[in-house]
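SEVERITY: medium
COMPONENT: batch folding queue
REPORTER: lab tech (J.R.)

DESCRIPTION
The queue accepted two submissions in a row. Attaching both inputs and their returned structure tokens so the on-call engineer can compare them side by side.

ATTACHMENT 1
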Amino acid sequence: MAIPPETLLAAKPIDTRWLWAVRILTLLSAVWLCALFLAKVDYELVALILALPAALLYLRILWRLRAKTRNKGLALAVVVGSAGFISGLLMLWGLAADPCDSRLQEVAFAGLFAISQMALIPSAIKAHLARKRHGDEKPTFGTDIFRRALYVGFPLLLWAAIAIPNLFRSRIAARGASAVGMMRTINTNEITYASTYTSGYSPTLGALGPPPAGSAPSALAAGLIDEVLASGVKTGYRFDYKPGPVEHGRIQTYTVTARPIKYGCPGKGSYYSDQTGEIRVTTEDRPASAQDEPLEDPLSRRNSAVYALFTIIDSESAYAMTYKTGYSPTLAVLGGSAGTPSSASAAGLIDEELAAGKKHGYTFTYKPGPADASGHIKTYVVVARPVKFGKTGDGSFFTDESGVVHMTSEDRPATAKDPPLAWQASEDRAPAIGDLRNINITEDVYLQWYKTGYSPTLAALGGYSKGTPASASAAGLLDDELAAGKTHGYTFTYKPGPADASGQVKTYTVVARPIKFGKTYPWNFFTDESGEIRHTTADRPATAKDPPIP
């Protein structure tokens, strides 16, 4: 008797090797995909989140390879494998297009993923054919592939075509943004350095770096930036810092440029900035310069506005010392025309833009205080506001004759009640620090004007009356309150050093103590001819052995 063909087929075991190959390749695909995106997580955390839906598809294939749904699982493996192979090629292309930051492990994972996809497709087809020969497969395999290609394969390919190139472009953009952030860090800490040390801006980028372990910050290692940035190379960019010339014992200007170590790798943007805080950019293969377009960035403009305020503060001090009428009546008189002799009505201390009250996307409103009995203007305020809040700047500023800059992030004019900039010390002690700096500056001016060295008393730095020429006993460099040794809730005790053989005073000390320690202010300060200010929170006079202000 003849044996039915189907009985002969059933008697021979089904070859399940291809089915197991599909299972193993599916599992490896999920592993390689997650490993690839985990290798990128330090650039784009969102990339890992984008990888999870694709990884879940491979887990769904494993779940579908059960006996009841094996036909659908194999069809899904063909579709996902095809889309995954194309995605793997796109990943390899993206890594090749970004060679400066394509790590070997990323290339390896992308290659392994593409190879596993290439092997998954024929393995699924072979498994289907093996089952079909034994009558264990439904005749709907082609239909299942078509259906899954429509609602799984096409969306997956669309995701790969959009997300993967954008991922690599965003990595390059992120590195450029990081370079801009480093430029801001340098600008901000240069201001901190210049306000802490008497030598002005730093002589090198390394001087902003951390001090040796166990050592206190100093002018040679201020501890303001990390050691990687202080070395001049970070995030694929080289930072070139150049200090300006020393004028009156201080470095008054600087420039810093940031260029990719290799053009296009990590980015195509080169940046330039200087003591104004404004950052300029070019996409050409050359160093950026002061002639390039400014970066449209509210934070950079904010730093520029702060620098402009310090320019006004310094210019007002110079104006008061030069013209003996106190501070300027308007911001415009601090400006002037090139080739015209400076005068009290055109001092030539600031540029025309700032003198007009509008620069770096900010408007600067200057208000002088009332003149005293001698006709001197002893106070002033300046308010800086963005022309368009949030677009040209995200902070408003206030300053006055104390030199302390206050800031608010609200869309309103800043006032003296707003907190000062964080690096300018705390709200309470900043005025005393400003007063001590004023004393140090005016002592240097006194030393240049008169041949007797530093002043014999604090009172000799003040005492100027209208109609009376300035003299060594009444130089008119300080306001009456500070010259009297009592202002802003502090008493200031000045002690000149001994005169040398030529009769010149070469040293001095100043101690600032709160009128009521702990109730008014909890800081004591000390300074001397070095210009360095030291402080203590103990209820005693500060000395040269106390730590410098941070």
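ATTACHMENT 2
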Amino acid sequence: MLIPPNSAKNPPFKTFFCPVFLCERQGFFIVYIMLRAFDVVRLRVILKERKFFTKGLKMEIQPLPQNQETEKTILASLIYDNSLIPQAASLLTAENFYTTNNQRLFYAILDLHKQGLAVDVVTLASHGVDSGYLAELSEHESTVNLKHHADSLKSAAFRRQAITAMAVASQKLYDPDASFTETVNGLADAIKLPEKSNEPLWTNEELTAVITQIITTTPKPFEFLIPKLLPKGICGFIYGEGGSYKSLAALWLCIQRACGYVANSKWLDRFEIFTVGKSMFCSVEDQIIDIQHRAYSIIDCFAASRTDIPRASFENAITENFSVIPRELWMKDNCEHIIDLEGNPTIKAEHIIQAANGKGVDLIIIDTLSRISPLDENDNKACSRLVSVLEHIRDLTGATVLVIAHTSKAGRTAQTDRNGQNGLRGASALMDNGRFGLWFKSLGKNELEIVNSKTFRTGRVEPFKIKIEYPKFMLIDDDTLEDDLMNAVVTDVKEHSGTTQRQTRSRLKKDMKFVSIGFSDAVEEGLIINNGRGKGYVPA
């Protein structure tokens, strides 16, 4: 049986050398030589055993944890926006940076800011910072989410500290004269996490101020992008099955807001757009040419309805108040998702925030949900994190954030879910945590029922029906819809005598509920006859 070296049955090397003293007698000298020879053989065996036990534990030398891109992003952000320096000073120390150059640069930034001087390329260069490195940072991307990047930097710094402390402790543990207890305690002290502050997060003054505001002041009226439907500053979803014109409707909303009341049109032929607003449409799927065709047809509708306004006026208003990020621009940074596998915002989320703030938009639409997250769409925890990232974008822009999504198969057939909250594909946490839902429920070819599945700060809008005459959305009143269905049913029965409701529904491609209404109305009007169960319907 092979016994590991340095075990209880196989003590360390030095214990094998027998302390035999030279003696004048020749016999003792021979014994000493024999014992030394035995020790050499024993030592070779132990070395082989050590090799056997360590050959599967090959240790590769790896660089210490660091993130040069994050360090550069933070430093570039501080140079670009000096207002972030106090926050950085409260979150970071120079030792959190890995390279000496970055440590010195952070010191210089804090020093200049403490003196009340502007922090820019010129002042930093005069402070001894390498101008070539400053030129490199001036071209580097910046961030507005400083805390997220600072947390990443501190995490890497703590890992470096822990690795260094463990390396020192491991060397001491090889020394038999070193105290084991002191070595382990020293390791624990070296990698001890920073103590949490005992200071309360919310002071009594803050809590008193909040309740005083709630009960003693008149609340401000809510702001709406679409009166009595879509509030400002919320996150929500527009969803429906494929081919239900969700993206077209979203494009209409953005362009109508860009033109305001002069467009002389209502969104979905139902909701007035009174004021001009700036919107950003992020298309993860569609390329420029696809969006161009849709937008051009919408502008044609505007020009046709307002012949008193030159088409160029609409084009100028849309250019000023509407921003589009097509697939080509979305993938410019080779990052498709706004959330990573750990549930944190990606650089794509930062780019959206920068673009939205740069344009001053108050509505951001992202198309489509399935393309912006690598997480399991059926995982409630993951979907809660996704909504948190959308809220993160909302918080740093002040905009309403809407995401276009698809319906679940179960939701399409659920007859009891009148509000349609179960129709959104994915975990229930999406609709639970979102503040707005609009379901584009297909009724058949080019006909939709719009269901306000979730609302916030206002009452729910009753479901209504629209018909699409591309690219227009036209409101249908219930009487007109029922008459059309009844006539369609009568025509189908005349062409297919003996048909059943299910067969007619399949041919008309209508929702079964509405087909049944059509049959009932046609029988009541005496236009068709029900021959009884299993015998179908025939013309009267």
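NOTES FROM REPORTER
The longest strand covers residues 436-444.
No errors were logged for either attachment.
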